[in-house]
Amino acid sequence: MHWHWTAGTYQPNRIERERYHILIDGEGREHSGLYAIEDNIPPLRPGGYAAHTRRANSWAIGVALCAMGRATQYPFDPGPWPITDAQLEALAKVTARLCERYGIPVTRTRVLSHAEVWPSLGVMQRGKWDITWLPDMATPGDPIEVGDRLRAMVRERLGDGRTEAEGPDSRMGGGALQALMRALRRIFGASRGP
């Protein structure tokens, strides 16, 4: 699962709904994207899936906060639509619900922000700093440290007090990925053809 901000206003627009499976508006309400989660099960069809993370959309659920339009990283300015506390609470709840439903372990390689994709998965992203800033921060921080804070919020909702090191296997291609693939196939049936 990949967390994003839309770099837009507090309300989702059509382009944002094409890119993400679930969007959370400024008041913490959920909005469905145009593509279902199962549309990101390979083989991916051009124009037929939520393309939210460069070269990492297969098996990935895209959840976005509708926020951070006109934000600048250097010098930092969160813009007129900064992330809200209501959005963070909703993000933690949505993520916990999806993790329970699909058996996704809350680890740095399974539940992460777009800014963590390159350092954690080794898949280069271009200029992505979402999500490196939270409302209680003066400036953006280290993507993994911010991601750890968000994962801790998710674990709290799940009643899982384990630390990252104590969490389930997080190796790419490990048992957790295979379990997720089986769970998605059970829920959604066989993957669609091209």
Description of the structure:
This protein has 194 residues and is an alpha/beta fold. The chain has a single domain (2-188), classed as 3-Layer(aba) Sandwich (Lysozyme-like), CATH 3.40.80.10. Helices cover 30% and strands 8% of the residues. The protein contains 5 helices and 5 strands. It has a 5-stranded mixed sheet. The chain is globular, with a radius of gyration of 16 Å. Residues 165-178 and 190-194 have low confidence and may be disordered.
Structure at a glance:
Helices cover 30% and strands 8% of the residues. With 194 residues, the chain is an alpha/beta fold.
Based on DSSP secondary structure assignment, what is the total number of beta strands?
5
For the record, what CATH class applies? Answer: Alpha Beta
Quaternary structure annotation: single chain
- Morphology: globular
